[in-house]
Design goal:
The mean pLDDT is about 85. The chain has about 90 residues and is α/β, with parallel strands linked by helices. Helix 1 links the parallel strand 1 and strand 2. It is flat, with a radius of gyration of 12 Å. It has a 4-stranded parallel sheet, with helices on both faces.
Length: about 90
Amino acid sequence: MGPVKILIVEDEPNMVAGLRDNFEFEGFQVITALDGVEGLERALKESPNLIVLDVMMPRMSGLDVCKQLKANAHRFPSSCLRRAGRR
């Protein structure tokens, strides 16, 4: 089994950079996506072990991404962590 794979779905580049740096420092493999549509595509293709998911994003919200992933639960057993911050 390889390193734990984490998908970060976030539309703020500074937040992506900070999360990526911290997770990579701890030895995780990091994949990123800049909006919900790209995040859903990457999740289904890459099958990450964990998804850190912003709630308010362009093209598709994080909540809609979670709903789509739940609908594909037989293909996608990973965990989803939603993040909502003040803008």
